[in-house]
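Regression test case RT-17, inverse folding.

Input:
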């Protein structure tokens, strides 16, 4: 739950415990944590890709996967729902790019399907969480600060 300037917010990918503000940082967001797991899995997959792909699909996979949690974090730090929603949409785009590259790696037989499935499952889970978060952010037309008043 975000509480600040009279705004309440609770949704998928956000942890709330009790009556006090528990989201102190983007690192507290479950969706960010899931996206970090996806990025780490992308790095593990990249280690087994052929050297010839280092500056092609490997590089693109790593940039796209790292962009998902980075954009969640940046949006959270911006302070308005409008800005936050914008960066969540960018994260969704990076997630779609990550998923597409993973599927392509299987299609061109650079990685076996069973090796890529855990990452694809993380893509699906992260996507659902991002969609829920975005819906909640867009549902409120209030663009006041999300940060607690000090």
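Golden output:
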């Amino acid at each position: 739950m975000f509480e600040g300037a009279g705004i309440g917010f609770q949704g998928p990918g956000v942890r709330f415990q009790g009556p006090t503000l528990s989201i102190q940082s983007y690192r507290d967001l479950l969706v960010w944590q899931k996206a970090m797991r996806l990025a780490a899995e992308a790095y593990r997959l990249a280690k087994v890709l052929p050297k010839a792909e280092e500056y092609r699909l490997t590089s693109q996979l790593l940039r796209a996967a790292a962009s998902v949690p980075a954009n969640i974090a940046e949006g959270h730090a911006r302070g308005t729902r409008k800005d936050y929603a914008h960066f969540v949409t960018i994260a969704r785009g990076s997630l779609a790019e990550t998923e597409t590259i993973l599927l392509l790696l299987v299609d061109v037989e650079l990685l076996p399907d069973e090796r890529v499935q855990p990452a694809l499952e993380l893509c699906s889970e992260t996507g659902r969480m991002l969609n829920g978060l975005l819906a909640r952010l867009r549902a409120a037309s209030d663009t006041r600060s999300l940060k607690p008043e000090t």
